[in-house]
Automatic annotation (TrEMBL):
<comment type="similarity">
    <text>Belongs to the GFRP family.</text>
</comment>
<dbReference type="GO" id="GO:0005829">
    <property type="term" value="C:cytosol"/>
</dbReference>
<keyword id="KW-0472">Membrane</keyword>
<dbReference type="Pfam" id="PF06399">
    <property type="entry name" value="GFRP"/>
</dbReference>
<keyword id="KW-0539">Nucleus</keyword>
<dbReference type="InterPro" id="IPR036717">
    <property type="entry name" value="GFRP_sf"/>
</dbReference>
<protein>
    <recommendedName>
        <fullName>GTP cyclohydrolase 1 feedback regulatory protein</fullName>
    </recommendedName>
</protein>
<keyword id="KW-0963">Cytoplasm</keyword>
<dbReference type="GO" id="GO:0031965">
    <property type="term" value="C:nuclear membrane"/>
</dbReference>
<dbReference type="GO" id="GO:0044549">
    <property type="term" value="F:GTP cyclohydrolase binding"/>
</dbReference>
<dbReference type="InterPro" id="IPR009112">
    <property type="entry name" value="GTP_CycHdrlase_I_reg"/>
</dbReference>
<dbReference type="GO" id="GO:0009890">
    <property type="term" value="P:negative regulation of biosynthetic process"/>
</dbReference>
Amino acid sequence: MPYMFVSTQIRLETGPTNVGDEYSDPTIMNYLGARKTTMLGNNFSEYHVDDPPRLVLDKLEKMGFRVLTMTGVGQTLVWCLHKETV
């Protein structure tokens, strides 16, 4: 999967960090130490880590991902990353 979203709530910028959805690459999620959770009332799962976004972005850079863009949506910070496919 060449694209990935990373997000966190502004008030929680020290973690936890959302790193993927139920269709995310399990190998990447394992590398990040992410756990899959389903919030009460949601019909989908998400992967979360306790690390702050900066550490998550550092780990993903080591895997070859690069930040394409970053934005704030309401009280949420979102980064879009891409990894070149060979």
